[in-house]
Amino acid sequence: MARSKGGLAKGLGAGIDVLIPANNESEESNAGIKEVDINKVEPDRNQPRQNFDEDELENLADSIKQYGVIDPLLVQDKGDYYEIVGGERRWRASKIAGLKKVPIIVREFTEQEKVLISLIENTQRQDLNPIEEATTYKRLMDEFDYTQDEVAARVSKSRPAVSNALRLLNLSDEVQQLLAEKTISSGHARALLGIKDPEKQSEFANAIIDKRLSVREVEKEIKKMQNDKGDKKPSKKNEIDPQLIAVYSDLEEQLKESTGTKVSIIPKDNNKGKIEIEYYNQDELERIVDKLQNK
After folding, report:
1. Do 247 and 254 form a contact (C-beta atoms < 8 A)?
2. How far apart are CA 172 and CA 168, in angstroms?
3. Among residues 15, 45, 65, 138, which one has the fewest Cβ atoms lying within 10 Å of its Cβ?
4. Three-class SS of residue 48?
5. What is the DSSP annotation of 251-277?
6. How far out from the chain centre does Cα 79 lie?
7. Which helix (H) or strand (E) holds 207?
């Protein structure tokens, strides 16, 4: 599919109304709020979120019973039913609450707009699990020819964060399911990428659960296993361990959040390197210095 980036450049940060402006020529039917039979509304089959926390849905249903659905569902008219573009959690909770009708806003969307809106709603209101997040990024790249840099810009993430998320899709199906269910952490999952055999990945994942291994313990065990079995070629001088690169990317994200600016970890080898902290004016430099000194 050809790219259509002009109207999407501001994307996530600008919100849905800027991303998909209302059609003023048919404001009553296309942009106005109306109530319809809840059974005439159905979720998008390609929605990136597949798992919904039942407790959270129950809590939302209790709120809806008391206050109603405050934010209308964003839908498009499919002829014999309305397809949800934004608001599937509210629709599910409304069903639990026993509502007969729900408020909707009807608009027309391209496939690209639908994917981006789903991503906006899920990442801003209810975090996707790591596999759903990675699957959404991959869909943006496969279907809309986005680069990792372009995906990162639209979801307000760093390119390494997007790259690390996509790497999780190389895990076996069983390990991906364990990660999606939060039985293992993203750190565990990234460490398991050091094992190429899918069956061995799954076996090691179950060992993590049974022995309650920490991420650091998993990394050490996998490295030892690779060295013992000769699965890993001897490192060249100054070659950086890929597992360390993944760890550094996570640390960069943490430092970015704590300092409020871009931070880069630049390794020289597996033991040493340097950290670069960017600033853009003297006030920002003073703010960063104060924050570091107060730590």
Report:
1. no
2. 9
3. 45
4. coil
5. HHHHHHHHHSS-EEEEESSSS-EEEEE
6. 32
7. helix 198-211
Q: Which residue has the tokens 């699990």?
A: 129
Q: Out of 23-27, 42-46, 160-164, 175-179, which region has the weakest mean confidence (pLDDT)?
A: 23-27
User: Catalytic residue numbers?
Assistant: 88
Q: Which of 277, 282, 280 is nearest to 258 (CA)?
A: 277
- The residues with which 103 forms a beta bridge, in sequence order, are 35
Q: Among 111, 169, 107, 160, which residue's Cα sits nearest to residue 138?
A: 169
HSE value, Cβ hemisphere, 13 Å, CA-based, for 120: 23
To the nearest 5 percent, what fractions of the chain are helix, strand and coil? 60, 10, 30
What's the predicted TM-score (pTM) here? Answer: 0.54
Can you tell me the distance from the alpha carbon of 156 to that of 193, in angstroms, rounded to the nearest whole number?
25
* Alpha-carbon radius of gyration of the chain: 23
Phi, psi of 63 (to 5 degrees): -65, -40
Residue 161 tokens, joined: 């964060």
- Nearest alpha carbon to residue 261 among 221, 291, 229: 291
- What pLDDT digit, counting tens, does each position of 166-191 carry? 999 999 999 999 999 889 998 999 99
* Mean pLDDT in residue range 284-288: 80
What b/e readout covers 66-81, taking b as 16+ CB neighbours within 10 angstroms? Answer: eeebeebbbbbeeeee
